[in-house]
Design a protein that fits this description.
alpha+beta, eight-stranded antiparallel β-barrel, 10 strands, 47% strand, Lipocalin-like
Amino acid sequence: MKKISVLIVITLLFYSCKKDPQTSLKHLNGYWEIESATTPKGKIHEYSISTTVDYISINDSLKGFRKKLNPTFTGSYNTSEDAEMITAKIENDSLNLYYRTPFSTWKETVIVANKEQLKVVNADNMTYIYKRFTPINVLE
């Protein structure tokens, strides 16, 4: 009986810890700064300073875009008109982001998305970790 109780507790913990892709979806919108990238062989590239931030905007129809922005010291951003179109889909208990530009298409799977961190893996098994970006305004 004790073994069955332990098995039930472990099973409940496993299912309660399972991530909900819908929850991840609500955290995607906003400004993200890359922290690191990890290759399939485990080599980690740390980004101590990045001159660009990614701005992600996904609407209720699960469509949106990602733009590269250059933050300024006044708290504003410089950008071009270029954007990567995004379609978000929940598939097999995962949140997948499908990107499209005039030149390419690709997919990323969201591993973690919360208020502070975004972690995605692409088809080449490259893992990217982002942190929420906070603008700097030196004029205030």
